[in-house]
Automatic annotation (TrEMBL):
UniProt region (Disordered), positions on chain: 56-83
GO MF annotations in UniProt: DNA binding; DNA-binding transcription activator activity; nucleotidyltransferase activity; sigma factor activity
PANTHER family associated with the record: RNA POLYMERASE SIGMA-54 FACTOR
Signal peptide: none
GO biological process per UniProt: DNA-templated transcription initiation
Domain of life according to the entry: Bacteria
Keywords, sorted A to Z: DNA-binding, DNA-directed RNA polymerase, Nucleotidyltransferase, Sigma factor, Transcription, Transcription regulation, Transferase
Name of this protein: RNA polymerase, sigma 54 subunit, RpoN/SigL
Coiled-coil annotated residue ranges, if any: none
Similarity annotation: Belongs to the sigma-54 factor family.
Length: 480
C-alpha cells in the first residue's frame, strides 16, 4: 500500500532592501591622533623620529640662524666661506698634532670605525650578582666539582640574593653529595655580598654577624629567635626576658639595623624611572605662565623637494606619494592638536587648582575629569588620554597630571576638601609626632576634625596612611 504525501510548493525569490544605519568607523588617521594624545613625551619623540625615517614628505626644520642676513658682495661671501674652511683646517691640524695617533691613522679610523665590533661590545654592562659571585669563585680555591655545584647554586638565586632551592633540589641538577653542596653554599655565603645564598632572613643575618665577628649571645639570640618581636616592636618584653635596659636593647637593635637583609638587591636589574616634564608652570608676578616642553621635539615641515615633484609622477608612484603626503599632513595636524589640547587642559587645571600652585599640596581641591572637560568643551575621554603619563613641573615639585584629580570629603561648613590634601596633612602630622609616642589613627582623625572640621573615620585614616606606605603607630614607635 503506497501512501501519497502532498507537499506544497515553496517559492524562493531574491529581494533588494534599502536600510539606513549609522556606524562609527575609526580611520587610521583618527587612531593615530588618539594614540598621540596618550603618548608620554619620550614616547612621542620616538614616534616622531620613526615617522621621519619612514615618510619622505616629512622634514625637520633647521634651527633659525641667529646671525643677520649677509648683504655683501659675492666676493665677501666667498671670503667668509674660505675663512670658515680655514678654521676647520686649523682645528684638524690641532687634532693631528696633539693626538696620540697620526693623521693618516685617523683617516683610516674614520673610514672603518671600530671594525669587527658590535655596538653592544663598545658598552660596559652593569655587573650582575651572578657574574660578581662567579668571578669571586674563579679566584678562590674551589675545585672543579665545587665550581659545578656553585654554578647551580648561583642559578637558583633570586633578585634579593636568597637561595630558592634546598640541597635535594640542587642534587637533582648536579652530581655531588649533600655535604659538598652544603659546604659550597656556606662558602658562597661568605663571599661579597656577605649573606648571599641564604635561605631565610634569619640565616642571612646570622651569617653576617658571624662574618663580622659579633659574638654577644644576646645579639645572636635576638636574630635567631626574636626577629618577629623586633619587627612588631615588642621591646619591653624583650628587655625583661634578657634582663637588660631599653638603652642596651636599643644598641643591639642598632647593630642589627646595620646588617643587610637583602644582600643581592644592589645588583638588581631594576632601572630608575626618569621623568621628563611635558609642561612647566612658572609664577610670574600674580599670575602663572604655562610653557610646553618642546625641547628635543623635531620641528616638522613638509619636504618641498617631493612636494614639487609629485605632479610629475604617474600610476602607483603618484598614489604612493599622495598617501604619504596625506599621512605627513595629518601627523602635523595631530601633533598641533595634541599640544593645543595639553595646553588647554593644563590651563584649566591651573584655574581649578590655583590654591595648590600658590600654597602647595595642602590646598589641593577636589576635581574630576568632567569638571575640566566641561570647562574646555571637550570629552572626558580626551581629558583622560591627554593626562595619561604626562608630568608637570610646578613651584612645589613635579607631579603627574592625574594627581590633580582627587575625590572630595565634606567639611562641617558644607564645603569640600580634596583627599590628597587630607593625605598631605596626615603625612605632616606624622612627621612632627613624638617618636616615643606616635599618633594613633584615632588621634589623627580627631586632629583632622579640629584642623579641617571634617569627620573622618579611623579606618579612613588607616587607608590613607597605608596608601602612603606609612607604618602603623606600633611600628613607628622608637625606644628612646
Amino acid at each position: 500500500m503506497r501512501r501519497a504525501v502532498a507537499m506544497g510548493s515553496m517559492g524562493l525569490e531574491l529581494r533588494q532592501q534599502l536600510k539606513l544605519s549609522q556606524q562609527l568607523v575609526m580611520t587610521p588617521q583618527l587612531q593615530q591622533a588618539i594614540k598621540l594624545l596618550q603618548l608620554s613625551r619620550l614616547e612621542l619623540l620616538e614616534s616622531v623620529q620613526q615617522e621621519l625615517l619612514e615618510n619622505p614628505f616629512l622634514d625637520e626644520k633647521e634651527a633659525d640662524d641667529p646671525q643677520p642676513e649677509d648683504t655683501q658682495s659675492k666676493e665677501s661671501e666667498e671670503g667668509d666661506a674660505q675663512a670658515e674652511l680655514m678654521r676647520d683646517a686649523d682645528w684638524e691640524n690641532y687634532i693631528g698634532e696633539f693626538s696620540s695617533s697620526s693623521k693618516q691613522s685617523q683617516v683610516r679610523e674614520a673610514e672603518i670605525p671600530e671594525e669587527g665590533l658590535s655596538f653592544e661590545a663598545r658598552l660596559a654592562s652593569k655587573p650582575s650578582l651572578h657574574g660578581h659571585l662567579n668571578w669571586q669563585m674563579r679566584l678562590s680555591n674551589f675545585t672543579d666539582e665545587e665550581l659545578a655545584v656553585g654554578d647551580v647554586v648561583l642559578g637558583n638565586l633570586d633578585d634579593r640574593g636568597y637561595l630558592q632551592a634546598d640541597v635535594q633540589d640542587l642534587l637533582a641538577l648536579v652530581e655531588s653529595d649533600p655535604e659538598t653542596v652544603e659546604s659550597v653554599i656556606q662558602r658562597i655565603q661568605r663571599l661579597d655580598p656577605v649573606g648571599v645564598a641564604a635561605r631565610s632572613p634569619r640565616e642571612c643575618l646570622k651569617v653576617q654577624l658571624e662574618f663580622f665577628d659579633y659574638t654577644d649571645p644576646i645579639l645572636l639570640d635576638l636574630v635567631d629567635q626574636h626577629l618577629e618581636d623586633l619587627e612588631k616592636r615588642r621591646y619591653k618584653p624583650l628587655a625583661r626576658k634578657f634582663k637588660i635596659s631599653l638603652d642596651k636593647l636599643k644598641k643591639y637593635i642598632e647593630v642589627i639595623q646595620k646588617l643587610d637583609p637583602m644582600p643581592g638587591a644592589s645588583f638588581s636589574s631594576t632601572e630608575p624611572h626618569y621623568v621628563s616634564p611635558d609642561v612647566f608652570v612658572y609664577k610670574y608676578g600674580d599670575d602663572f605662565v604655562i610653557v610646553l616642553n618642546e625641547d628635543g621635539l623635531p620641528r616638522l615641515t613638509l619636504n618641498s623637494f617631493y612636494m614639487d615633484d609629485i605632479g610629475n609622477c604617474t600610476g602607483k608612484d603618484k598614489e604612493y606619494f599622495q598617501d604619504k603626503m596625506r599621512s605627513a599632513a595629518w601627523l602635523l595636524k595631530s601633533l598641533y592638536q595634541r599640544q593645543r589640547t595639553l595646553y588647554k587642559v593644563m590651563e584649566s587645571i591651573v584655574r581649578f587648582q590655583r590654591d595648590f600652585f600658590e600654597q602647595g599640596v595642602a590646598k589641593l581641591k577636589p576635581l574630576i575629569l568632567k569638571d575640566v572637560a566641561e570647562d574646555i568643551n571637550m570629552h572626558e575621554s580626551t581629558v583622560s588620554r591627554i593626562t595619561t603619563s604626562k608630568y608637570v613641573s610646578t613651584p612645589h615639585g613635579i607631579f603627574e597630571l592625574k594627581f590633580f584629580f582627587n575625590s572630595a570629603l565634606d567639611l562641617g561648613d558644607g564645603t569640600q576638601v580634596g583627599s590628597e590634601s587630607v593625605k598631605a596633612l596626615i603625612k605632616q602630622l606624622i612627621s612632627g609626632e613624638n617618636p616615643k609616642k606616635p599618633l594613633s589613627d584615632e588621634t589623627i582623625g580627631e586632629m583632622l576634625k579640629a584642623e579641617l572640621d571634617v569627620n573622618i573615620a579611623r579606618r579612613t585614616v588607616a587607608k590613607y596612611r597605608s596608601a602612603m606606605d606609612i607604618p602603623s603607630s606600633s611600628k613607628r614607635k622608637q625606644i628612646l
